[in-house]
Amino acid sequence: METMERKDNSTLFSDTALVLEGGGMRGVFTCGVLDNFMDRGIRFPYVIGVSAGACNGLSYMSGQRGRAKFSNIDLLAKYHYVGFKYLFTQRNIMDFDLLFHEFPNHIIPYDYEAYFRSPYRYVMVTTNCLTGRAEYFEEKSDPDRLIDIVKASSSLPFVCPITPVDGVPMLDGGLADSIPVRHAMAEGYSKCVVILTRNRGYRKTIHGSKVPPFIYKEYPRLKVTINRRSRLYNEQLSEVERLEDEGKIQVIRPIKPIEVNRIERNIDKLNALYEEGYQCGAAWNPTGQLI
């Protein structure tokens, strides 16, 4: 990997992309890795995030060390913003008003200026409900549009409302491209560091059920994407493992068996996974060897 020492004592891996998988609350693992990278001054010219990965990557891009952990763990303990009760008030499994408005604007302000000044590219993945295909967005000037994109990337099917971006209905980017390594490579980055939130060897169970006819009936192509999502995800995991074994990419993933689910609310489990992420980040170096 080509590196470049910067005046701010950071190290830029100028030929390498950073890819951030989602996974809901399992994303606290990613928070730990990224906090370690910030502590070590590790930077990449191109970062692409999906769903929870897109959310957590924003604090990395603005250089706000600890912000993502505070949002995902400390503020969860205080505000309890995940739960089925929000389905009745917001038609959502999470309190999106709190997460995407109160948090970044008032409770734990997001440093938009630092993010917009950053010379590095940040791409967020959504799924277009009309086409069923992945969309890849960048935004470096409009705070409202930035929030629309990351909110759409995090909008889980069935339990979150569809979120428009530029007037187009969008849902969770993980439906169409959970681990966008191929997209990063197509952008010219043959080297990738990939942060996953599942153990090596994990595969989703393939169920025969389909999206009921009365759900998303106005979005037939989205339904096709949802129905094949598990197969696509398993294919991407297999490809990631193959590329890793061939030495073409580096992967940072949990080592211990995952005990955190997508909507986990157990603070002890979340803290433990964050700490594992921090340690796995500390064990990474550009040669691909463990420190």
Folded structure, characterized:
The chain is of the alpha/beta class and 291 residues long. The protein has eleven helices and eleven strands. Helix 1 runs parallel beside helix 2 (52-62) and helix 1 (28-40) runs parallel beside helix 11 (267-282).
Characterize this entry briefly.
The chain has 291 residues and is of the alpha/beta class.
Helical content band = 40-55%
Determine the structural class based on helices, strands and strand pairing.
alpha/beta
Number of strands: 11
Poorly predicted tracts of residues:
none
Largest sheet: 8 strands, mixed
Give average pLDDT, whole number.
94
Rg, Å, rounded: 18 Å
What fraction of the residues are assigned to beta strands by DSSP? 15-25%
* N-to-C series of helices and strands: EEEHEEHHHHHEEHEEHEHHEH
Number of helices: 11
Tell me the span between the first and last alpha carbons.
16 Å
User: Overall 3D geometry?
Assistant: globular
